[in-house]
Amino acid sequence: MTALPPLARFGGRVATGLMDVTHDAAALDSRGFWAVVADFGGRLTCARFRDVRAPPARVGRAAHWSGPRPDQWITSLDHGAYTAGVRRIREHIAAGEVYQANLCRILSAPLGPDADAEALADLLAGRHRAPYAGLVRLPGYGPDVVTASPELFLRRTGRIVESGSIKGTGRTTADLLPKDHAENVMIVDLVRNDLGRVCATGTVTVPDLCAVERHPGLVHLVSTVRGELRDDARWADLFAAAFPPGSVTGAPKKSALDIIAALETAPRGPYCGGIGWVDADRRRGELAVGIRTFWLDHELGRLNFGAGAGITWDSDPEREWQETELKAERLLSIASNGTPATNATPAPAT
Predict the structure, then answer these.
(1) Does residue 1 form part of some domain?
(2) Marked catalytic residue, from 167, 253, 264, 323
(3) Is the pTM above the cut of 0.85?
């Protein structure tokens, strides 16, 4: 497949004319419009584009997408391994090592040689609208990323910064349990502490706690944390304080990350990282948590997607497995042009 030109799309913006790429967050305090992808492992890619405009009035490329067959998806953790992981996290909680940890699995399928991230993004835009949908295509600098994220990681307007953590997922509000509310409050405390490291004393507030948001096929509990950055705080400081997002790690964050590393068998990549844009000239930016996110690895010929759940002492292993199924089923169905079996085949041992 001939490499397609670099491109970024977020909301009403299309960015073209790639100028430079860096892994240094300090660039985000310079000049210009930047597309940003931070993978869960901490690798940051910032791409500055010359031309930013509204998307042209044209027929989308959705019809050009040809996804994998539903039976081609494999999973890094099958049902047995995932539910065993939930039980292991509960043992860590009982031992007082962690209060909550997010356990994820990576689903993967063959990627066709002519697969186009823009076509997949158009397909999702037509069938699964999301508040933080985006596309970043940087040939030679990593996988193409297509996100239908419902979750705000960081929004910055001048000195004001806010985060909108999701914890608690169900098909309807009747599925939301006290466990979901407790989990949300735990992560709110974590995010308050994260932002408190770079915000002026006394400015961190919680304007919304456990608000119900409705998205295609499911509902979420969402809480907003807001603060005013110190005068000396830069984007690099904000990333250092807040990354990786608390809602997809756990509390305490360091302990949760250690547990995740021991239990998960595949790297998360852009999934659960941060994906978005920064307008350095206007001191504004918006990054989503990289959930409901596909990444197209053309080098390996794989289409990848992640799904996970937050585990607490009250977690039921089977219910947590079903939550990962719920989060994956609609989007994998769209990507496969059919109805996938999200209870995918276990990935072969390596």
Answers:
(1) no
(2) 167
(3) yes
